[in-house]
Amino acid sequence: MLWVPQKGVLRVQHNAGSVGTLTPGTSVTTGASTNTKGTPAEIFSATNFASFWMTIIATGYGAGGVASDGAMDILIGAATEEVLIPNLLMGECGNVGDNTEGGFKRWDFPLYTPAGSRIAVQAAGRRTSTAFNVVMYLHGGNGSPPFRVGSKVTTYGMGTVPNGTAITPGANGAEGSWAQIAAATSEDHFAFLPSFQVTNDSIILNRVLSLEIGVGAATEESIGEWLFSAHANELVHGPMDSTPVFQDVPAGTRLSMRASNNATNSDSYNAVIHAVS
Known about the structure:
Blueprint: E1 10-14, E2 26-29, E3 41-44, E4 51-59, E5 70-76, E6 82-88, E7 105-109, E8 119-125, E9 131-141, E10 153-156, E11 165-167, E12 179-182, E13 189-198, E14 207-215, E15 221-231, E16 235-240, E17 245-249, E18 255-261, E19 269-276
Antiparallel strand pairs: 1-9, 2-9, 3-8, 4-7, 4-9, 5-6, 5-8, 10-19, 11-19, 12-18, 13-17, 13-19, 14-15, 14-18, 15-16
């Protein structure tokens, strides 16, 4: 029997707007103190359909000569929101149309969200009470996705908001040492994606960095690698590619990260791992 794929089953809902702008999406304001998330900003009052893939883009928080590390949560539900994705490191994200080489930050997750869901964002950052923008795309509708889909994201390695775990890259293209992010995962996971930013720095140097996620004990297995770029206008772009790596990792597994730098380490960096379950 010939199997014919269904056509026209993928739907998209987004908040990017229908008119070109340098500030697409929804304005989100960081909390009044560095370590406190601000008031949630609503992205969708009710999703139009059940979705299985979420794209998140953060823009416009980085600024020249200003330390701009930050962390944001994706929330789902009504006034007592549940955290769907905690602590995406949106620090130093640039504008969509930035011509100074410091672009936006983007993450893609295989996540299920029911039809009719309210989705919001809250954030904390070094620049307090400061607005930036979040764009979100939901993909779904009829049919079934050709990949596994989860229901939530756990973030490992978050220290004091807005920073993750300190990472020291190897200089001049060398691999740095593995840094433990989690001694043991709290549950089974199947997809992984990093966040990365510069730590409390108003004079960032131009760098290209490669970041790896490792699983296991002292002889870590590398399961994925992503690029980030840091720029002298105090902006950080990445991860590139924004797609997660799919790998089954059971509960109780150690997670680690290491990085390499194309030049010397003149800045301090921090990172977290987002794991889907």
